[in-house]
Known about the structure:
Layout: H1 5-14, H2 32-53, H3 67-97, E1 102-103, E2 109-110, H4 115-122
Antiparallel strand pairs: 1-2
Helix pairs in contact: 2-3
Organism: Candidatus Cardinium hertigii
Protein name: Transposase IS4-like domain-containing protein
Transmembrane segments: 70-91
Amino acid sequence: MVEDILTIDQAKLSKGRFILATNQLDKEELPDQELLSTYKEQSVTESGFKFIKDHTFEVDSIFLKKPTRISTLMMVMTLCLMVYSIAQYYLRKELVSSNETILSQSGYATNRPSMQWVYRLFHGIHVI
């Protein structure tokens, strides 16, 4: 196998750049790979806040004046997010360990469904 420098250089020119900045300059304290993996983990947290902002929570229809009530609501919502995340984690873990899948919203088999989708699958099921 021979390295094609010209093709590599052309590919580098067409690719974008991504800059991660940190105040930690000591590479032993925070290696580049750890910085990148820490950054990538933020998307998991951000998806949690997307869940809180979802219209199914109907937060936009709640009006609170007292700071204590606002902080209490945020605590309850964060607790809900924690329960949701734990349930999703264990569901995905069990699907992988048992080599099982379920159908996704798009109709393909997945072992990484969202709990929101799983809740929708249970809609209409009643225990008598």
